[in-house]
Amino acid sequence: MQYKRILIAVDDSAYAMKAARAGFALAKPLNAAVAVVYVINKSKEVVSADLGITPEQSKTLLLQEADKTIQQFIDLYNENSEVFRFTPEGIPEKEILNIATEWEADLIVMGTHTRSGLDRILTGSTAEYVIRHALIPVLVTPPRMT
């Protein structure tokens, strides 16, 4: 299969850095188009009347963080090709799949935290959800990848 549109799902973790590196490295020899998606997770939104932080301000800060993170990965790993950027708001695993469908990606690249035990039961795994529900191949980079 020839991959022509690679979607790289990232967040602000070291695991995402490994996924970005792998996604851009794979795209280069294939001359594939690349898109990076960073989902603004509403559950991380900080709203505090005591600190004077409104929902709009919190959303703006999260969007700035997403844009900054995407730009850092582009600066580190991209070599002079256009990169599409997506920063939807919602549940990460569902938004990754939505963007993959809308952008017509033929491969999703993402990292994993390899949670286990109770933490995995309580929080679930974004990568696991995407693997189980994606209609296209998913490349998951391991946390210990060099």
Automatic annotation (TrEMBL):
Sorted UniProt keywords: Cytoplasm
CDD domains in alphabetical order: USP-like (cd00293)
TM annotation in the entry: none
A GO cellular component annotation in the UniProt record: cytoplasm
Domain UspA span(s) in chain numbering: 3-142
Superkingdom of origin organism: Bacteria
Compartment(s) where it occurs, according to its Swiss-Prot or TrEMBL record: Cytoplasm
A Pfam family hit: Usp
Family as reported in the entry's similarity comment: Belongs to the universal stress protein A family.
Family matches, as PANTHER family: STRESS RESPONSE PROTEIN NHAX, UNIVERSAL STRESS PROTEIN UP12
Name the UniProt record assigns to this protein: Universal stress protein
